[in-house]
Write a sequence for this structure.
């Protein structure tokens, strides 16, 4: 449940805002950003997800100025930690408007990966996207503040 003025709240974001989503999957992409690239990647992920009859992993996605961390909602096991500096793009898909996705560079291979998540409501997908955008801004502000004195 998001408070009405959640966009003004810097405090919780420093600690991390949590969203419970279903992980749809990942596909490799050519470009680090762009709406068309993301839309095509999301279509591929959703198409693949529909074919597999498996249940989607429920994850707790935490957004902070450090980046995005993914934790299994059932086991509480850490799935992945993505540095804010490795994330190049995030979006809520226009057609699949309950789908939130981000593009990040893989730490292992250096390849660009688009990860997609299904949220219970369109508003939540949009909130995750806005929260990530806010985290980017905050990370930049913190970085600039840290380097201002040098």
């Amino acid at each position: 449940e998001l408070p009405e003025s959640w966009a003004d709240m810097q405090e919780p974001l420093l600690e991390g805002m949590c969203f419970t989503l279903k992980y749809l999957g990942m596909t490799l992409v050519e470009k680090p950003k762009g709406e068309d690239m993301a839309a095509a990647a999301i279509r591929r992920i959703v198409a693949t997800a529909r074919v597999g009859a498996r249940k989607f992993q429920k994850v707790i996605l935490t957004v902070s100025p450090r980046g995005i961390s993914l934790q299994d909602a059932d086991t509480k096991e850490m799935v992945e930690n993505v540095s804010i500096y490795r994330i190049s793009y995030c979006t809520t898909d226009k057609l699949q408007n309950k789908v939130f996705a981000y593009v990040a560079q893989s730490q292992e291979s250096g390849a660009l990966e688009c990860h997609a998540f299904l949220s219970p409501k369109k508003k939540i997908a949009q909130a995750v996207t806005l929260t990530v955008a806010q985290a980017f801004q905050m990370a930049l502000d913190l970085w600039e503040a840290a380097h201002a004195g040098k």
